[in-house]
């Protein structure tokens, strides 16, 4: 699939998000021209690099946004000021988190425009409450799946490291977000596959497959 250039990538921060849940965006950032420039790749591969614009969003636009591990992330936009995105990544908030109407509206509005919506770990929660997962296959942390299958039967819960259903990609636990991103990059950026493989190789990215 051919993606826009520049590619607009958003990270939605729903409260104190798990840092590793949003770290996979950095793998995607390895396809950016500024990063590729320092990789010293052959010109026919390096020339395929993208221009990527990153947006870090929370409901109010106020920051920095607290993360786990004592980290804080600068916020660039609120849910009402963020422009249409091409890719939206949602990391995991605390399991008790419930999205506000504003966050639900933001997700539904962006979903209509994005090429891909990615959730990592409990990042499924705001998407679930936005109604987007209805009648779709999705996954979540293994320990939560029995409860989700019982309480949220409108979703086809699958016990895998990551699952794709159309333009919705979901992952299991924290570390599975990296595996999801690697699979996403290989599947969605086939037109620049040589660059994708070169950068994943530099990162020593391994493959365990979808199944546990």
Which tags fit this structure?
seven-stranded mixed beta sheet, two-stranded antiparallel ribbon, 18% strand, 212 residues, globular, alpha/beta, 11 strands
Structure, described:
There is one protein chain. Helix content is 31%, strand content 18%. The protein contains nine helices and eleven strands. The protein has helices at residues 19-22, 24-29, 33-36, 43-46, 101-111, 124-129, 145-151, 176-188, 193-202, and strands spanning 7-12, 52-58, 65-66, 72-73, 77-78, 87-90, 116-119, 137-138, 156-157, 162-165, 168-171. The two termini are 28 Å apart.
Structural class: alpha/beta
Order of helices and strands: EHHHHEEEEEHEHEHEEEHH
Overall helicity: 25-40%
Strand order of the largest sheet: 5-2-1-6-7-11-10
Q: Note the total helix count.
A: 9
Measured distance between first and last alpha carbons = 28 Å
Strand content: 15-25%
Poorly predicted runs: none
Oligomer: single chain
Shape: globular
Sheet with most strands: 7 strands, mixed
Radius of gyration: 17 Å
Count of distinct strands:
11
Instruction: Let me know the average pLDDT.
Output: 96
């Amino acid at each position: 699939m051919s993606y826009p250039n520049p590619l607009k990538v958003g990270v939605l921060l729903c409260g104190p998000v798990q840092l590793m849940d949003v770290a996979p965006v950095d793998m995607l950032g390895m396809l950016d021209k500024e990063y590729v420039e320092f990789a010293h790749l052959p010109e026919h591969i390096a020339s395929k690099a993208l221009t990527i614009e990153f947006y870090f969003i929370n409901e109010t636009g106020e920051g920095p946004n607290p993360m786990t591990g004592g980290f804080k992330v600068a916020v660039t936009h609120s849910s009402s000021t963020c422009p249409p995105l091409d890719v939206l990544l949602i990391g995991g908030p605390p399991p008790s988190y419930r999205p506000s109407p504003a966050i639900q509206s933001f997700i539904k509005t962006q979903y209509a425009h994005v090429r891909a919506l990615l959730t990592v770990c409990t990042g499924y929660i705001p998407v679930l409450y936005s109604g987007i997962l209805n009648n779709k296959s999705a996954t979540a942390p293994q320990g939560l799946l029995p409860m989700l299958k019982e309480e949220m039967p409108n979703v086809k819960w699958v016990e895998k490291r990551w699952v794709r259903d159309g333009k919705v990609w979901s992952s299991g636990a924290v570390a599975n977000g990296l595996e999801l991103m690697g699979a996403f990059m290989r599947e969605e950026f086939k037109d620049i596959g040589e660059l994708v493989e070169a950068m994943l190789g530099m990162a020593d990215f391994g493959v365990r497959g979808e199944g546990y």
